[in-house]
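User: If only I could read backbone structure tokens as easily as an amino acid sequence. Those tokens are not coordinates but codes from a learned vocabulary of shapes. Could you go through the record with me and say what the backbone is doing? Here is the record:
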Amino acid sequence: MTGQPVSGGGPGEEPHAGAAPLPGTAPGRPWVPRRPGRPDVFTFGETMVALRGSGPLKLGGTMRVSVAGAESNVAIGLARLGHDVRWAGAVGDDEAGQLVLRTLRAEGVEVSGAATDPDAPTGLLLFEPRLPEVTRVHYYRAGSAGSRLATDTVDRAFRAAPPRVLHLTGITPALSLAARAAALRALQLAREHGSLVCLDVNFRARLWTAGEAAAVLREWMPFVDVLIASDDELPLCLPEDGDEAEDRDGPEEGNGPEDGDGPEATAAAAGAGPAGPTADSLASPDSLASPDSLASQARALLDLGVGEVVVKLGAAGATAFTCGGSLHQPAKSVRAVDAVGAGDAFVAGYLSALLDGEGPAGCLERAVTTGAFAVASPGDWEGAPTRAELGMLGAPPGTVVR
């Protein structure tokens, strides 16, 4: 654990109302002390150029150019909420890479630690809307610069200014052994510098198998302060029967796909935002884990040393589990336009409130609010709200803000 647990939440925070105590646990949850001169959040991963069509690609037509990547979506969401955010990744020495960096800079994200790879291109993805709520995504990113992310990029970022929070996703370690080594290095540096670690599982079945993902994620758990996952992703983080829960030496390298995996293995590497719902994630409400099952799994993760477990339940909202109890927050009701990027917006809102010293109730409230803004607007990150806009969801229909 790298964060600092305190009884009842952050400084001066009252225990959250309505929390259901978890048997056998003591109050306490991660919080992030203010540290002058240190950025609020550091994150890294692959961001690609995204082309969005208005219909079937085979019919041609126009496309809108943007960028997309799970970690950069979170970075933009946090920057719009007024936080100091740094993003690092690798882009090609090409116009597409310049678009990625220019877009992030324009959104207030610090990108001076990003690397430019002269020997590999920036990745590309195409969005193809096929039904009102179904979008297909086509990737062109085998051997991309983003998959060749190196550990020295992470080293430079921590040497320049260790962050208050390190945000990782389960996408980056699936890209290649090099990217996995960079993520491992980031976890080690976060521990050395006392940075809180937030992990969004973001499992992508087209990147690696559940077994491969579990082998890595289970070894990461002792490093994680805030774990964010959908209900079907939690088992990937739980120890198998017979695993030693007390093994706190941290993750080891060498598990998972080799460098140079083919297009199918890397197809969904851009992240939760651009990938959108996968076939395995389009579950019916009946497939959601029961509250008792979620509580049991969360308790097991808390026992492993995770400080906070946040379970995203889609239209059913989200539930946060800490050693002090659990709290559920319903989703906000909005007219859905584009579900892509909602999970990343949720993470940005949750981390924003955590950085502000909010308890689970405040973190969940802001998270479902930023997630609602995402689904109410087209694009991965374009609809992310500013801090001044957070209250707009409560306005009645037809409201004109002057």
About this structure: Confidence is low (pLDDT under 50) at residues 4-27, 242-287. The chain is about 30% helix and 20% strand. The longest helix spans residues 177-193.
